[in-house]
Amino acid sequence: MEPYLFGCRLDQDIIDLDQTVDHLQAALNFTAHVAYRGGIVLFVSRRRQFVHLVERTAQSCGEYAHTRYWQGGLLTNAPVQYGPGVRLPDLIVFLSTLNNVFQQHVGVRDAAKMNIPSVGVVDSNCNPSLLTYPVPGNDDTPAAMELYCRLFKMTINRAKDKRKQMELLREISSPGS
After folding, report:
1. How confident is residue 176, by pLDDT bands cut at 50, 70 and 90?
2. pTM of the model
3. Measured over all CA atoms, what is the biggest interatomic distance in the chain, rounded to whole angstroms?
């Protein structure tokens, strides 16, 4: 996490917001591409205080959320647990990459094993190495979580709306079929 830190003051790590903006832009851009192409986005968070916020965000943009205990092998063992032909998510958004104060979320490792792209908000106590798109930022405060949820919801909804517009244009431009 050290490359994303601006410095330290009064024993508090300060995240470099210039890097946060760049990484967040790349993560939102990738999320928009996945949503535009009809991909499945899974929002994941284990923080109890944000369960309703994360679930509401996923529901309002027509995607999925997982805010409960993550069983190891949920992704890697999916065909055995749920049967053949189960579709895994095309993108996993980790709004908090830790299970508790000390442990990295098991889903981060599972997503990396299954080559599922992942976006994750990484605080100063997280390891960003297994995430495809790490976003350095604060994942502890309600204001920050609301901002991330609002940005991801807006991005996904705009991408889906753009897809609908393009499909309508295709239908109008080809009246013979």
Report:
1. low
2. 0.88
3. 69
